Amino acid sequence: MKLNQSQIQEALLCGQALVFEEIDSTNAFLLNHYQELEQGSVCLAESQTSGRGRRGRTWYSPQSENVYFSILWHYPKEEVEQVSSLSLVVALIIAESLQAQGVKDIQIKWPNDVYFQGKKMGGILIETKVDKNGVHLVIGIGLNLGMTKVDEKIVNQAWADLSAYHFDRNALVCRLAYELQKNLKIYPLVGFAHYVERWQSFDIFHGQAVKLVTEGQEIHGISQGINEQGELLLKQGNEINAFGIGEMSLRPNTQTEN
Ligand code: ATP
Ligand code: BTN
């Protein structure tokens, strides 16, 4: 079933729904048009020719039953500090929306990857523009709802899709758009603490040995979930230390340690 622009429009609390057959990147579109579009506007496409992942990587975006979705949101400059943990909230909203459609085995890998049965099924890329009016966020979400094969030069890790579920893609997108708008509105008021417990229930590595990989460094520990700032908690010896969201990759640690 094709994406239905008017059905998606009806689900929105604010802003405009724009659906394209093909686009370079739904994130790039909203970043280019953020001044003309109202808060809450969403951009979707059936395929992307230059889908963007984090850290300059490519998001594989063929024409299939996948979701390539971006939403525009504005925050005043004073609230910018809360933005770093927003990607965790977005991951949680995705996980809960999928669960509400009957999908089991959804997990989140800190800070913001969405996994299905232990394999990457979706990702989130938040990009910003800052001007005198505040911070303009474009929150991009890619979800593999129906993709039977990938280009292995681009997708160089285990991946999953949800084609086993055959659910209504428009219904999922409507729910996701509505839930995101609702939570983006309340987020500055309730803060991240409001979401911590729900986030932990989807945590893929809770209680497991992990490593945080940064350029030139590996930090090892036992994952203890997150704190009220959205930082990752690692048990290292007798201490529990917190690590902020940055240029880091979280991986299972299969080495045995003393
Ligand atoms: P981390 O943030 O821990 O490094 P990651 O290895 O998943 O996580 P990201 O930058 O978040 O890296 O995501 C980009 C990666 O996602 C790409 O390098 C590719 O391996 C993978 N990828 C690209 N397109 C898809 C897709 N459609 N489905 C699943 N995985 C994809
Ligand atoms: C990642 O895990 O690296 C993040 C992937 C984000 C992909 C989505 S698809 C919709 C939006 N448009 C883009 O170009 N990227 C995001």
TrEMBL record:
Domain (BPL/LPL catalytic) ranges: 12-188
Keyword annotations of the record: ATP-binding, Biotin, Ligase, Nucleotide-binding
Signal peptide: none
Enzyme class, broadest EC rank: ligase
Catalytic activity, reaction form: biotin + L-lysyl-[protein] + ATP = N(6)-biotinyl-L-lysyl-[protein] + AMP + diphosphate + H(+)
Pfam assignment, any one: BPL_C
Originating organism: Actinobacillus minor 202
Domain of life of the native organism: Bacteria
Gene (UniProt): birA
Stated name of the protein: biotin--[biotin carboxyl-carrier protein] ligase
EC number: 6.3.4.15
